[in-house]
Structures are given as C-alpha cells and as structure tokens.
Write a structure and sequence with these properties.
222 residues, alpha/beta, two-stranded antiparallel sheet, 6 helices, four-stranded parallel sheet, Rossmann fold
C-alpha cells in the first residue's frame, strides 16, 4: 500500500479511503503548470466515491481542466458494505456528469474491453480536453483483509463471479485464437514465479530503516 517510486512515476497508495484523489489532482495541476504532457491515472474503489475527497477532487479537476484519468474499481463492496447500502446512485459513471466530465462504464472482468476504454479515455485527457471518469465493474474474490469473516455476502455469489475471472477468461480467449499455447502459458507462469521469488529475497535481505529516521519528514527541526 505504501510503495512509492517517483522514478517509475508511481506515487504510492494511501491508507485513507479516498486519500489518493486529492494527491492525483495536485500531481496533475503541477504537470499542467509546468506544461508537461502527462496523464495522472488515479485508481480508487467504489467506497471512495462516498468520501468528500472524491467530490472535491472531481470538481477541481474539471474546473481547472486537469489531465486526470479517474479509474474507479467498483467491486460492489466497500470493505463489508454493499454498494446499495452506501450509494443512492449506484451507476457511478453517472456521477461524472455532475462535474461536467465524461463518464463511462466498462466490464472490469474483460481485459480487452478495459484496455480499449481506458486507451480512449487517456487519449481524451492527453488532448487537453480535461479529466474523464471510467468505472470498471469488477469483483473481489477474497476477503478484504485477513480479519474479514465475509459475513456480508453469500459464498455462492463469490463462486459465481469466479467463473468470470478476467485472467482465466483472457487466457482462454488467447488459446482459442491460437495466440497462446500451453507451453507459452507455463513459461510465463514460471517467469512470474521467478520474478516474485527474486523480489522477496531482495526484500528479506534488505536492511532495516535506522531508528533515527523515525521522525524524519514528521517534525520540523527547530
């Protein structure tokens, strides 16, 4: 959640629900003032749409025509609250119209559909037209956290959604089209496993942050 690497243009996540939205607006404003042709892609869940930061960010981005691509991953549950219990308007893409920006909904379980919609939305932002909003309707298969007993949803619902797993569906589509063999898939999976193992080894071999850094960037020295 707290990974950050400006060199890779990845500005981290936030433990605060909706906390990344105003940060995205700030990054986009900086790019606009410096005349940098960039798009700030801001990812958040349906739960963040109920937060005040969402409305403030949408309003300012539209008012200042900032290059922000708002990407809402609507998985129907904000932690343990189903969307109908928290949102008066469950068609989240329609909220964009209140801020005079385009809003579009896409099947978040379809890899190719998401790519096409997001590509079109990003091109709109790059043309200087202002921000745009994309709602990806998807689903969370696992619990929100290791302490989540998932008492708020039926296990049959989860299993039904798993039949639409976007990775499995996309792999099947590629194999049916003759663009991916079983050997290709096995090779990709082995490569991914090696990359993950290497990353874990690197992290475990790393050094701890010194205690002296505990208050760095927290307090201002006198």
């Amino acid at each position: 959640m707290h990974l950050f690497d400006a060199a890779l243009r990845f500005y981290g996540g936030s433990a605060i629900v909706g906390g990344g939205l105003p940060l995205a607006v700030g990054l986009a404003l900086a790019d606009k003032l410096q005349h940098k042709a960039r798009v700030t892609a801001c990812f958040f869940g349906d739960g963040a749409v109920a937060e005040g930061e969402f409305h403030e960010a949408m309003n300012l981005a539209s008012l200042w025509k900032l290059p922000v691509l708002f990407l809402c991953e609507n998985n129907l549950y904000a932690m343990g609250t189903r969307i109908e219990r928290a949102q008066a308007q469950t068609d989240l893409a329609r909220k964009a119209s209140a801020y005079a920006m385009p809003g579009e909904t896409v099947d978040g379980m379809d890899v190719e559909a998401v790519e096409a919609v997001v590509r079109r939305a990003a091109e709109y932002v790059r043309r200087g037209e202002g921000p745009t909003f994309v709602e990806c309707r998807t689903y969370r298969f696992r619990a929100h956290s290791m302490f989540d007993a998932e008492l708020y949803r039926d296990k049959r619902e989860v299993e039904e959604w798993k039949t639409r797993d976007p990775i499995a569906t996309f792999v099947g589509r590629l194999q049916q089209a003759g663009q991916l063999t079983d050997a290709d898939r096995a090779g990709l999976e082995r490569a991914v496993e090696r990359e993950i193992d290497e990353a874990v080894r690197f992290a475990e071999a790393g050094t701890w942050e010194p205690v002296e850094d505990l208050t760095r960037d927290v307090y201002t020295p006198r």
